[in-house]
Specification:
single chain, alpha/beta, binds 8-demethyl-8-dimethylamino-flavin-adenine-dinucleotide, binds P-hydroxybenzoic acid
Amino acid sequence: METLRTRVGIVGAGPAGLLLSQLLHLRGIESVVLESRSRGYVEQRVRAGVLEHGIAELLERCGAGDRLRREGLVHTGVELLFDGCRHRLDFAELTGKAIVVYGQQEVVKDLIALRLGAGAAILFEAPASAIEGLDSDRPSIRFSQNGEERRLECDVIAGCDGFHGVSRLAPPEGALRLHVRDYPYGWLGILARVAPANDELIYCRSERGFALLSMRSPEVSRLYLQVAPDEPLEDWPDDRIWDELRARLRTGDGWTVTPGPIFEKGVTAMRGAVVEPMRYGPLFLAGDAAHIVPPTGAKGLNLAAGDVRLLAAALGAHFEKGDDSLLDAYSDACLGRAWLAEEFSAFMTATLHTLSGDPFEERLAEARLRHLVNSREAAASLAERYVDLNSLCG
Ligand code: RFL
Ligand code: PHB
């Protein structure tokens, strides 16, 4: 079997794996990225859209900011819509910071172009099948490419292969613990070729269920509807989606969303999960491989970026100075942030979704929303976590 060698073997070319390889490159540390899918597939996969203040800055600082600066939409607030009224949370005033709305697949395209432009090894259509030797000083990743089995020997392995990858399952049974919460909700998400009906995101709680108005550009709207986790997509022809969005996103003053041609739709079940610890010997988990959050808080991509920022700094100290203190602190530092994000995402989900079947819970959520728009402290607490949760954990 052909064996390759590198310092850091990275499994997965999502935002976590690609950003890690760029941050390591800037420190002069060589890596190889293995990705099971094709380049076209990962560049087209529609997912997140909100970058925290500090994560947008990180992308700029690491050289992936050209298009982000030109095309990213800087938002200094979001709106909450409930009881038929819109209420603005002014992030600029509450935190002095802003978010950037920029599609995850654009971040992925920018990072791939940057890495390949610098001659990096990103092997597409090269799925990892096993991680071996974690208890030895020669860990390796077994993968296939063009029908041939290969092995990548590494000093360190970064498991950035998402929640359904192989890395999380590689340590011996019982070494890692998985905490899971399944939410009784799903999101039906669409992309439509129509100007967003508002300049900023609108998170809406209605008696018909949650809805979210977001966007990708001045011409493309991104919208979501709360549905059942196993909702059949076939039950949602375009007209029904627009009717439901208009029924939920409606205000007393006649404002509503504008329909347009839908060119992408999908349903995602909502789940929270955290793996503890995020390290086993030379294997370090990062991003969705270690934790997932329901999308209501817009945290998944931002947590992934926060993990690899720490991991890159820790690997820098390890390879440059033989100092392992940051590597040893990696799991605890990331888990502190991951649980803060789980708590925030659970709070946003419980506050904005309806139809829980529990009238007491529904009244609590309504009370929380009223408190948010009447108390500067409550609004500021949401704002600081929405805009820059990563900065709250060092
Ligand atoms: P990814 O993006 O899943 O990438 C993992 C990569 O690993 C590859 N892979 C393998 N490669 C080689 N060998 C194997 N055996 C492999 N197994 C898997 C996969 O093909 C893939 O390319 O994980 P990463 O990099 O950790 O990034 C995490 C983010 O993708 C995720 O957290 C966000 O998309 C979550 N999320 C949001 N996050 C935000 O910060 N802000 C948002 O506004 C936001 N909105 C969302 C979201 C996720 C959503 N869905 C679809 C779950 C909205 C939605 C609807
Ligand atoms: C998105 O634009 O895709 C998006 C925005 C905010 C969220 C989740 C997704 O909370």
